[in-house]
Design a protein that fits this description.
Radius of gyration: 20 Å
Distance between the termini: 62 Å
Number of strands: 0
Order of helices and strands: HHH
Largest sheet: none
Mean pLDDT: 80
Shape: elongated
């Protein structure tokens, strides 16, 4: 596992510490991943982007019947 040093504001660090206290066995990397995974969409565009990230782009268009049912 590679390691990187980052600089964050003290208020961002406090957020990480609070989240880490809820799951003390998690690493800070795990806490950041869980915060990203649990983010909330505020707009439809954000919701669709999150859904696309999770499920991938559904490139197959829906199938339509060639003939009307009788």
């Amino acid at each position: 596992m590679s390691r990187k040093t980052i600089s964050i504001d003290s208020d961002a660090y406090e957020i990480l510490l609070r989240e880490k206290k809820e799951a003390p066995r998690q690493s800070f990397s795990d806490v950041i991943r869980s915060l990203r995974a649990n983010r909330r969409a505020r707009t439809l565009k954000e919701m669709l982007a999150i859904e696309d990230e999770i499920y991938g782009h559904l490139s197959t268009p829906p199938r339509h019947a060639r003939h009307a049912a009788v």
